[in-house]
Amino acid sequence: MGVALTRDIPLPEMLRQSAECVVRHLDAAFVRVWTVGASGHILELQASAGMYTHLDGPHSRVPVGSLKIGLIAQDRRPHLTNSVIGDAAVGDQEWAKREGMVAFAGYPLLVDDRLVGVIALFARRPLSDDTLQAMASISNGIALAIERRWAEQALAEAARAKDHFLAVLSHELRTPLTPVLMAVTAMLDNSKMCPSCRPTLVMIRNNVELEARLIEDLLDLSRIARGKMTYHFETADIHVLIRQAVEICRGDLLAKDHHLVLDLAASEQHVHADPTRLEQVIWNLVANAVQYTPEGGRIVIRTQSDQGRLVVEVADNGIGIDPKFLPLLFDAFERGKEAVVNHSGGLGLGLAISRSIIEAHGGTLVAASNGRGQGSTFTLELATVATPGDSALQPAAPTAPPGRALRILLAEDNRATAQVMADVLRKKDHEVTMVTCLKRALEAASGEFDVVVSDIELGDGSGLELMRYICASEAGHNTPGIALSGYATEEDVQQSLAAGFTIHLAKPVTLTTLESAIHQVTARALSSEAREGDIPKRTSSPLCEDQLAPKSRR
């Protein structure tokens, strides 16, 4: 019985196995278990074992207060008898005589004073006092198991509702950022742009990217809390990741006139890691050092090898950390007094997410500071792995020839976003066919295109339908596709790849990111077509905007 009540199985199966145990151990003819329905007025038959195993019939739904079972629920008291024949509460006396029923025991399933159900049995022999005591104990265990399972189901439903809310919120917040970010980056790329306008445009771009990072941080925190953070491990060079993270922060470093020292002395710098996630951690540490160090400050990033461990330190001579705050530093939404006083941006999620990522890699991340005004040092440790040989190094993805004009099918249901994207792509000499709904996209798909760029939500349908249609067509089965979406969970990425898209980009998307993705997928398609009989393969692991432009992930 204990095994049945504690197994991770659906509630009806748990109750069925429990009923079978009662049949065997108490020598019952049959046992049935009802639970209280959502209204609180109906008992719903969940399990039946013994001579009857069906769940339909007149006893499948019993009103509280009706029949023997309903009266037990109403009175919340057990009903016991060794004289079924002649018991007025047993309505079908002919059945009882025919089947030789002698005893009946019915118990309310109670947790404290809350009714969760009823369990009842019929037997062809009298029930002893010991049997009745065992029945009482069994009823208590089943009631507690039902209550626990209901609580688990409520938590799971709440988690699903939360996931859905966060996904929709992410989509609604990300989508309006795309035309803004696309237009601003295009203006900044224009050499004829008025120099006095550039600082304003940079400010707009930075704040849009900040909002995108805050959205991603909230989603990361939710993934971590639910144990759904995904990692794609491979051998990674920490020195390469450090340089990439520094490059992302270069503009901020220059703006504050920081002196950056790179002391990458580790002789063993390779680790088994998810490169994108590990770079996210390094970027967060460097970005914090930049943010909390006054202008003209000094930031040092050093690495060293220590008996099979790789040690990475990010140190600064900035505002430091109050010793009282150090124990709370890696808690979500904790920002400290210094962060509030200095009006620094962010929600206090970066370090909490960073530590979780490092712990998932089997490493440690700690902070140290001598107090306010004394700077701070963050130390990251990971186990090292052997340096991969030349044969283990993966060749970089080919890039498309610069300046090559492409035929692009662009499907985006937001007309403003579609127009901005089409305009900036046309300025790059691409031939763009712009559509704003699935119907028009399917009509246009009969043409020949070098690449398809499609939003997932198309108003009258889905970009997934569009890509499946193109992949199934004879003319378009080799055409690479880039999915654009405000939905960016692992499930969303996998759905895009399964539909035939080569890359899934999370909105907002910069022009640079989109161009990089277009060049990557078209170059891959060209190299595949050059090999006779080859069909371009879709990426087997999620390749999102985050991987193309790591800054957007933080």
How would you describe this protein?
This protein is an alpha/beta fold. It has three domains: 2-153, Beta-Lactamase, CATH 3.30.450.40; 175-229 and 395-554, 3-Layer(aba) Sandwich (Rossmann fold); 234-392, 2-Layer Sandwich (Heat Shock Protein 90), CATH 3.30.565. 43% of the residues lie in helices and 20% in strands. It contains 17 helices and 18 strands. The protein has helices spanning 2-6, 11-26, 67-75, 93-99, 129-174, 177-189, 198-225, 238-255, 275-291, 336-341, 350-360, 415-427, 438-444, 463-472, 490-499, 511-529, 545-548, and strands spanning 30-36, 42-50, 61-63, 79-81, 103-111, 114-123, 234-237, 259-264, 270-273, 298-306, 309-316, 364-368, 376-383, 407-411, 431-435, 451-455, 481-485, 503-506. The strands form four sheets. The protein has a six-stranded antiparallel β-sheet. Strands 8-10-11-13-12 form a five-stranded mixed β-sheet. A hairpin with a 2-residue loop joins strand 10 and strand 11. The longest helix has 46 residues, at 129-174. It is elongated, with a radius of gyration of 32 Å. Residues 337-346, 390-402 and 531-554 have low confidence and may be disordered.
